[in-house]
Amino acid sequence: MLDISRRTCRLLALVAVAACHDGNDPAPRDHSASIPVLGKGAVDERYTSELNVRGSYAYTGSWGNRNGIRGNAVKIWDITGKAPVLVDSLIVPTFAPTTAPVSTTGDVQVSDDGTLLGVATERFGGSLALYSLANPAHPVLLSQFHSIDTDPGVHTAELARVNGTLYAFLDIDPNGATVPAKLVVLDLSDPAQPTQILARVMGDPFVHDVFVRDSLLFTALWDDGLSIWDIGGSRGGTPANPVFISNIATVGGEVHNVWWFHDPTTGGKQFVFVGQEGPATLFAAASGDIHVVDISTITAPREVAMYSLPNAGTHNFSVDESSGVLYAAYYNGGVRALDIRGDPGSCTTAARLSDGRCDLRAAGREIGHALDQGNFIWGVQWVGDRLYASDMPHGLWTLDVSSLRR
Q: pTM of this prediction?
């Protein structure tokens, strides 16, 4: 979500200037280095939103209205070369019998088996459009789900498998005081005929995004914080009936997106990274920090660290878990790469804030940056030695992150 009018009262964390480490924390790998840019696929007629990459192709959504052209398109890119090459473009249809045209395809996602492309549409007549990727260069519409619960719009959509079944977790926009935000879940066992199995009100004022892994559901509830639910584990929850486990109100609220980090080198699953989206001025300025939550006691999560970039705000993450690198889209701050190995909550006094949290920037955890001049980066996705970044005014970038891998 791009939010340019939310409440301006936020707790601004102090950014320390000393950088050092102690024996409980790995030494920073390097200073923050410039990440090389390999190429750009230009989009000039629409604003670019989210991206998703699978195999040789990338898919990008579109946002809002640019010079009278609505954000009703999904672009398909061949990414085998250094610069993305446009090979097709979908126009997502208005859902009948509604007459409100699609104005934003803000979220796009490929299913884990590579067979489906899901596209979330806004505003009124909000829907989830599902496309077959039998030919990944030219997706074909299979179905378009809409119900009274998906109005006024599906802001984000997560396709995730729980105990062998594919589901779509839809985050629904509120509409003033009369229609609250809600989470809608669809069973996609038959993608040609999705079945709604849950519609639950949650979030203040938004439920913005979700993260699903190991039968747990993490919901980003804006000023209601981050909640954790069982949807298929030992507490008896299911996607049709999530069982609440815990909630944490991260500093400043505005909880926007989530990544639960699994460290393959240690087997650790202790830390959750939470993005905060504060007020922004389109294409010029943004605000919002990254918050690190320790869930070693899952019923009592606690915030242990943060990362703040002056005069810029984070939006979405992608994590190279094999190398312990979190890549964050930072709007006017471009792309930022953070070393997240070890314990982010362990730092020296010089890098510790007055409230006890560690400042990851002061601790030398930022190890790379790119596209931080004249761009407005919405989303990122890491794939091997490359990182792909969607840029609202310019299109799709390819970056070389081979030097940050280990």
A: 0.92
